[in-house]
Please model this.
Amino acid sequence: MITRRVQYEVAGRLAGPALFRLEAWQQRVKKMRKGPRKSAIFGPPLECVSKLKELMGTHYLQGRYADGAVPVAWVTSGFPVEILRPLGFHAVYPENHAALCSVQRVVPELSDAVEKEGYARDLCSYARTDIGSVVTGKTPVGRLPKPDVLLCCTNICQTVLYWYRALAAHFNVPLVLMDTPFVYGEAKPHHRQYVRDQLEELVDVAERVGGKRVDPEELEEVVRVARDGTRLWGECLAASRAKPAPWTGIDGFFHIAPIVTLRGTRQCNAYYRMLLDELNDRVAKGIGGIVNERHRLLWDNLPIWFDVRGLSTLMAERGFNFVVTTYTNAWAEAGSRIDPADPIGSAVVAYTDIILNQDLNKRLDTMRRLSRDYSVDGAVLHSDRSCKPYSIGQIDLKQRLAKELDMRVLVLEADHGDPRAYAKEQGEGRLTAFMEGFS
Amino acid sequence: MRRAYIERQRGEHGRKSVAVLPVHHPKELLTALDLLSVELWGPPGPPRGPDVGRVQSYVCAVARNALAFLAAGHADVVDAVLYPHTCDSIQGLATLIPDFGGCAKPALTFLHPKGPSRPSARTYLEAELRSLAASLEGIAGKELEPERLRAAIALHREIDDTKARVLAGRARLPLADRALYEQLRRGEFLWPEEHLAELRALEARLESAPVQRGVPVMVTGYVPEPMGILDAIDDAGAFVAVDDWAAIGRRVTRAQTFDRAGEPFRALVDLYHAAPPCPTRHADQGARMRHLLDLFDRSGAAGVIVHEPKFCEPELFDVPAIKKTFADRKVPLLYLETELEAELPGQTVTRIEAFVEMLQSSRRAA
Ligand code: SF4
Ligand code: SF4
Model:
């Protein structure tokens, strides 16, 4: 146990940062030797990227030594993780891990493994990927620590529940559920009370698994850090209101990782301060995420992780930039509502009233507001084959957005994780035709 | 047929009606308020209206068909639509239809809790039931009287108990699967007292010894649609000895006593948590597997048919565990996926025939 704890701390504090800094330094040297390479379509790469790699790489490296060293929780992305931080939990985010697997293009292999066991290919590709990783032990991050507890919040979908039930049966560990009733119009008082009661039940379970009690002052501080981090993330996104936007929405999909996985930690906030400074500097200098920003677009739904580069290149070549996405924006809104003076009470609202847990009118309002705030002249709604909660309603949303805001809107069918569910050529053809309609 | 029945209930008894989407809803509340509950499992067959195009083809046929049906005005005879908190798809329909158009009838929701019977869930469920009752009072135009609710709970207990006896005595019932399940499914729209009378008539037909000569099989899945699946099982030489279809067997709460003098809302909470494990209510997967094994053992079935709708997340996530549970016991299992087609595809019929043949030859060999 002590050795394990030492390994865990060394990985997180020394080995991880040192390793990734060395890698960043090697990259810089390589670049210097080759001389600066200027892209004809994208702006200069963000300097922060190496820091992002260090932060996330260290998180996963440290995770390899977490089980046996500290309590380990596997949590859904919308879970109120703040409660775990004062108890010293290491939080693993299977969704983030699955996204990483998709970027590394290992989803078909992992999914095949579970399809053989009977998981249908129509099920959420994040779930298939992660269960595949659990079953095969294969992961691009080396190793994921075994959970002591599974924490699942239904504010993003019901699917996570089915997925975590399967994980609970596999690992034979407790599954703690935060059931957040869907909000049609306004949440009813007994819906709020239910979430509050569950948060209180959660504290008891987390304390039992963590082996200590939550210190209210520590919790208050974590909540403050989480709220500030969320606001910083929101400011980073808001930098794209400038013309040209200093980065792309696609960049945003990658830079979202700390606010999802490290929310409530100082490293997370330090990172976003650095990113914000860089973005503000680019705005001041008129440096765009793409070289020739002619059209500004909104993206709805998760990214197509396995093809983000291809897709953004196709768009950027023709002067199109996704300056805002509903997905990255969701992470700037919910968490900013938590209040250190009332960690539990404010978490009830913050974790219930999020885009995927609210009715379509609210979603349309958000899309309208973002379209105006970011001065977009078109939108691409990613109809995500294996994410039903985010995709149902998009056909109506398309019509309403197009009519009310008089803009071009495309529904593009693909998948967030599984390349086998995306007809790339056809998709690119549709995007090209969509872009041609602007001229 | 249902339209005529709904209109007759209104004309003869002054009863209003509520269309209800799958799977679980507190029917007792509707009965106590003299509201007819008419369930909408699709309906099966091709979508009955152009609005089906408002949701993607990768959404299940149950949700797609329900949208098309409601938006084409086929449910204009009812007074409200109730959307239980079953899955992401129904949750989506419960905002798509009322907010973006498709059915002008009042939309009610029943956001039942997920997970085990913990204190937070019990308190919440009681409040949610009371909130739904208040909305239903508005539709019915009358107040819910506790005594009527108690009577409705007792009536539905009687229905479940009778249904449980009929299902437990399946092998002694001289009726083909299709005829039996058509009778059972009439409970999806009949006034409960009429349904009970029909169930009692069924029970009276139970013989003292088994009359079914086919191979007994267990079926687990969502809804027996297309109903041709039952003909195919029969024709192949088997019969459904026990079922865990979400629409039928999984909604029969067995052997649950109910305190007639107690607080009725609390009784409903107890009943909700005593129902058989269902993934749409987030039952523990291990508990569900134990329940399925228990059903299987008690039925004497020789094999298992898993019959699921394509794209149904709650059902499909349990399929690997079901396959493994029965494989570990070396129980033959056939997996079928259907999409509310009007007719059972020929290929599926052939697979059922081959499966039953295999069960028959194993039995002969044993
Ligand atoms: S991708 Fe969609 S279905 Fe999958 S976990 Fe996320 S919200 Fe749920
Ligand atoms: S996804 Fe499953 S539970 Fe939901 S409506 Fe479709 S068939 Fe029913």
Remarks:
- Chain B touches chain A through 53 residues (CB under 8 Å).
- Residues 146-168 of chain B form the longest helix (23 residues).
- Residues 104 and 137 of chain B are 19 Å apart (CA to CA).
- Residues 212-365 of chain B form a domain with the Rossmann fold fold (CATH 3.40.50.11900).
